[in-house]
Structure formats: structure tokens, C-alpha cells
Amino acid sequence: MKSYLFLLPLLLLSTCKKDDDENLSRVIEFDDPVDVTITGYTDDLMEPFLSRDGTMLMFNNNNDPSYNTNLHWAIKVNETTFTYLGEISNVNSPDLEAVATMDVNNNLFFVSTRDYFTSLVTLFQTTFANGATSTITPLGSLSLNVVGWLNFDVEVTADGNQLYFADGRYDATGGPHEANLAIAEKMEISMYGSPARTN
């Protein structure tokens, strides 16, 4: 048995090499970036989201605390031009609304600080249609429920079955001073299970 032990590393290397080559990520090449024009909009544009069918752009204006950050939308004219249609109705408040994302069934998710100081919740879900939203539902099960920690970024998968989001720790000087990524699986409409978090 002893005489064969030296062959074990060679055997492992030869079997792993083929699998490793097959599992390497392919290189994705991008063209040079081009400017996109939003006709009728002249303010800051941040955190854009392109609808799954590519026909609509959602975004927020400047998210500096001195601004009233709200969600806006525009429709596609061509690959580099959109027409601004205004703020999304029934979703904005005097507090921050930002980071829109939507699944193929028009379930819209976003970040808002509207209820943070009473509920510690900053992720919300609603349904989008024709520039307006329906009832807004807080996603309280995704909050860490710790003062100073908040969910500050979100992305939903196209089918709506997973939410990816970031937890961040903030204080009076700003932040995030530390952050973790998390993922939650959909259990039922507007209900997501306990998220798995990074450390």
C-alpha cells in the first residue's frame, strides 16, 4: 500500500485538472460605454434599473441627505434614449426612496427610510403599473432589528423568488461603516424567509 501513496497526488491532479478547466468562468467582454439621454430630465440620476423587457428605466435622484430622494421613471425610445415620465406615483414620501428593482410580474422593491425610526425597516414591496404603485408592504422579516443597521441596497431576481440585499451599519457620521450581503427566498406573496447573511 505504501508504494502507491505517491501516486495519489498525481491521480488527484489529473482528475481535478479537467474539471477545473471546465468550471473556469468565461471572460465577458463589454463594448465601450456610451451616454444615455433621458429627454425631459435634468437633475442627478442614480441607481438605475432597466425593466426585464428593456422598455422602462427606473432611477432615483441624488441620495445626499440634503435632497428629497424619490423614485422616477422613463420609457425607452432607442438603445441610448429614454423619455422622462416623472416621479413614480403613490410611492414617494418626504424621506428617501431609492434603489428600485422589479421582477417580471411588476413586483417593485425599493429602499426607503420612511419608517426606520419606528420599525427599523427600510425594504418595501409594491406592485407597479402605468407609472403608479399599489399598496406598499414593509419587508420587516429582512431587517436585523438593530438600531444603526439598515438594508441599504436590494435586487430581486427576474422570477421574484430571491431577494439580494445589503445590511449596513450607520451612525451620526454616516456610513456604512461595515456591510454584509444577504439573500432571502420567497415563501409567499410579499413574504420572504429568514435571509442567509455573509459576515
Would you mind describing this structure in some detail?
The chain has helices at 7-23, 116-119; strands at 37-39, 46-50, 56-60, 71-78, 81-87, 97-102, 107-112, 123-129, 132-133, 137-138, 149-156, 162-171, 174-188, 191-192, 196-197. The radius of gyration is 22 Å and the shape is globular. It has one domain: Lipocalin (Beta Barrel), CATH 2.40.128. The protein is mainly beta.
What is the gist of this entry?
This protein has 199 residues and is mostly beta strands.
Describe the SSE topology.
Blueprint: H1 7-23, E1 37-39, E2 46-50, E3 56-60, E4 71-78, E5 81-87, E6 97-102, E7 107-112, H2 116-119, E8 123-129, E9 132-133, E10 137-138, E11 149-156, E12 162-171, E13 174-188, E14 191-192, E15 196-197
Parallel strand pairs: 1-5
Antiparallel strand pairs: 2-3, 3-4, 4-5, 6-7, 7-8, 8-9, 8-10, 11-12, 12-13, 13-14, 13-15
